[in-house]
Amino acid sequence: MSGHDNDEPMFLRERGTGFVYNPRNPIGLALIVLTVVGVIAYMYHLHDSSQ
Fold first, then answer.
1. 22 pLDDT above the threshold of 70
2. 42 is a domain residue
3. Which of 17, 19, 25, 41 could cross-link to 8 by cystine, CB 3.0-4.6 Å?
């Protein structure tokens, strides 16, 4: 046994959109959270630097 309980792929292939993060994979879920936090931080930085 490899010791991995979750054999879900990190990315899923979606029709028409290409690859998307897989929230059932722990790394895919972490990438989703980091992307959202990064976008919010970037938007805050843009708003803060424009004033």
1. yes
2. yes
3. 25
